[in-house]
């Protein structure tokens, strides 16, 4: 990494991630430029252990969604923590994961273009121990795969999963009749092997407990009905039926699907939550409070990702501008949320305080955040550092080619890079 990476110190030359700790940079010494995306190591470790432990207690596999971070270093952490594999959305993302050591992968998306099918075949040929499953949700997609395969040299059929969807939402078969017709066609196809069934329950959730329980339960029942009918017809090709679901919001509600019994073959239940590794301060935090209530948990995940900014101007009472904008932080679900204030000159985390409840970000430009505050209360000053929390970490990761990893005392001890 070097000064071509946003917020990397311009005087630091070129460094590898393993060289970062030796620089003794501190978040409170202004050693790095603002804005700065920061991963808190203690929270990362907590989240990795918590989610892996949860999956093991529930007797399901964990295949975190790699599109959240697209960071090889974080992929490695997830695998080292015990993840069964990783999930991706595209062949490009899969290639990044394979280079990082992933050998079991679900592509939770349709694969159908000639270039992507050829790319997947090349990865499978280059890595004999690589297993990949992707989604099929229509006869039209299956026909494209078959047409492409018919023109290629002899190659084993692709392993695929039947996708069941939610009406009005994202991809997936809408009716049982449609799903069964497609499953039978895949069973008979020389181009694919039907290995299981997939759904994404996040499409059904609204962060309202009664609604979410009913909606996701209905989806699980629909999927299980299709699974049982396919199993009765012996349409699953593998010796283990792969059933997979799970975003990062209501993953507890799909466990009855992933742990179902009474089938002719064993089930491999795979949970695909991705945002758990960093969690957030808004969207997923609200959902996880409901998971805690349903599961009787005392705590769960911790926010591990934040963006440090500096107050660059206070042009009028009640309005300040921070060095952070749409190019730097998530805003697709809601605007960032001030979390902590480190006054100019503060050098110890013990002196960093929570921001007043009246402070809020009301707008973002490309490079500016509008911070509104009560001018009769705590007033930000030029040079102060304001730490921002966020909703939906995915769209902060894709704005950074690197992120620092910091300890609780503010010492920077590492870094990760991203591959978007």
Overall description:
There is one protein chain. This protein has 420 residues and is of the alpha/beta class. It folds into 2 domains: 17-41 and 300-417, Lyase, Ornithine Decarboxylase, Chain A, domain 1, CATH 2.40.37; 64-273, TIM Barrel, CATH 3.20.20.10. The chain contains 10 helices and 18 strands. The protein has helices at 41-57, 72-80, 91-99, 114-126, 139-150, 176-188, 209-232, 255-258, 283-295, 394-397, and strands at residues 36-40, 61-62, 86-88, 104-110, 131-136, 158-164, 192-199, 241-245, 267-271, 305-316, 319-322, 337-342, 353-354, 360-364, 369-372, 385-389, 402-406, 412-417. The strands form 2 sheets. Strands 1, 10, 11, 12, 13, 14, 15, 16, 17 and 18 form a 10-stranded mixed beta sheet that branches. Helix 3 packs parallel to helix 4 (114-126) and helix 6 (176-188) runs parallel beside helix 7 (209-232).
Sum this structure up briefly:
The protein has helices at residues 41-57, 72-80, 91-99, 114-126, 139-150, 176-188, 209-232, 255-258, 283-295, 394-397, and strands at residues 36-40, 61-62, 86-88, 104-110, 131-136, 158-164, 192-199, 241-245, 267-271, 305-316, 319-322, 337-342, 353-354, 360-364, 369-372, 385-389, 402-406, 412-417. The chain is α/β, with parallel strands linked by helices and 420 residues long. α3 packs parallel to α4 and α6 packs parallel to α7 (209-232).
DSSP strand tally: 18
Low-confidence stretches: none
Class of the largest domain in CATH? Alpha Beta
Series of secondary-structure elements, N-terminal to C-terminal: EHEHEHEHEHEHEHEHEHEEEEEEEHEE
CATH superfamily of the largest domain: Alanine racemase
Give the structural class: alpha/beta
- Examine the secondary-structure arrangement and name the CATH architecture of the largest domain: Alpha-Beta Barrel
Percent range for helical residues? Answer: 25-40%
Mean pLDDT: 97
The main sheet comes to: 10 strands, mixed
Radius of gyration: 23 Å
